[in-house]
Structures are given as structure tokens and as C-alpha cells.
Amino acid sequence: MVQYTIPQSPEIILTVSGKDSAKAREKAMDQLMELMDAGKLPTELEEGFGPQQLIEVKESTTEIASGEDAIAQAVQVLSNLATLKLKVQESRTEALEIRQTVDILFSDDSVTEEEISRLKEGFKVLKNFAQANLRYQEARTKAEQARKILDQALKSPEQ
Q1: Phi, psi angles (nearest 5°) of residue 57
Q2: Other C-beta atoms lying within 10 Å of the C-beta of residue 143
Q3: What confidence score (pLDDT) does residue 33 get?
Q4: Cα separation of the two ends of the chain
Q5: Cβ pair 78, 147 in contact under 8 A
Q6: Could you give the angle at the alpha carbon of 5 between the alpha carbons of 45 and 28, nearest 5°?
Q7: Which helix (H) or strand (E) segment is 44 a member of?
């Protein structure tokens, strides 16, 4: 399919099957003449207007490519969110247990060197969990927009 317009009325689109050719331009001229005869052409054409003066309308492939890039990026953002969610879930229970043991540092009870060693080891788990949780929260915010992009792309044309 090829589409043509005229400089005087760019809103008029004439669609013809095939590629841009002299024959396709002649068919578009026939459509243009029908519009003129029916009084549906909003402008007057100059004497001598011919098929060579039709302007081919080309679909913007950059819009399609940028849309596809947005979808690919949205999927990547959602994939990242899924990975972070698993990471947070896996370390949450252990981190919360360690967090409870932190309270022994603030009590007047005596602690053993072994308890302090376990606590220091636990700080790494706490740190990793807290960082993963922050990254997850940030990723979730970004993923909301990604979900909207995918929802829009998955909408059927008749909706």
C-alpha cells in the first residue's frame, strides 16, 4: 500500500495498493478526481495539476522503533523488579531475625564474644537485605510506568 496527499490539503490521504509507481499515482489521481466531482475536496487545484505533484506519505519508522524500544525497556525493568523481589524475599526472614538480636546491644545484659561475632556476621545480611529492599522499592516505582507502557502496547485496536 502506498499513500499520497496533495500540498494544498495535506489532511487528504489517498491510499492505493502496490508501491509508488506511475500506475499507483494514476489511481490516486482517479481518487482525487472522484473527491473533486463529489465536492469533497476543500481546495481548488491549479490547472495542470498532475500525478507527479502528489506527495507520497511515508509511515514514520522511527516512531515504531521507539515504541519497540520502550516495550523492550519496559520488559527489562519488570524483569529487574522480579529479580529484586526474589532477592528481598529470600533474605527478609533472616534479616528480621538478625534485626531482633541487635536489641541485645542496647540492653544492660551481658553478651558473649560469640554472640557479638554472630551479630557482626549478621550485619552483612542486614546490609544486603536493606540495600536490596531499597533497590526493590525504587525499581517498583519505575516498574509502574513500565506496566503502563506494556498495558498500552497489549491493548487490542478495538478497545
Answers
A1: -95, 120
A2: 21
A3: 86
A4: 25
A5: yes
A6: 85
A7: none
- In angstroms and rounded to an integer, the radius of gyration of the C-alpha atoms of the chain is 33
Tell which wins on pLDDT, 69 or 129.
129
Distance of alpha carbon 94 from alpha carbon 50, whole angstroms: 79
Residue 15's alpha-carbon distances to 27, 62, 120, in angstroms, are: 9, 21, 73
Per DSSP, the chain holds a count of helices (H) and strands (E) of 3, 3
Nearest by Cα to 107 from 96, 93, 119:
119
What's the rounded Cα separation, in Å, for the pair 92 and 85? Answer: 10
Is there a contact between 44 and 112 (Cβ–Cβ < 8 Å)?
A: no
pLDDT digits (tens, 9 = 90+) for 102-138: 988 999 999 999 999 999 999 999 999 999 999 999 9
Cα separation, 12 vs 31, in Å, equals 11
Residue 50 cell numbers, joined: 498532475
Which residues is 57 bridged to in the sheet?
3
| Tally of CA atoms within 13 A in the half-sphere of 152 that contains its CB | 11
Residue 65 pLDDT level (bands cut at 50, 70, 90): low
The predicted model scores a pTM of: 0.51
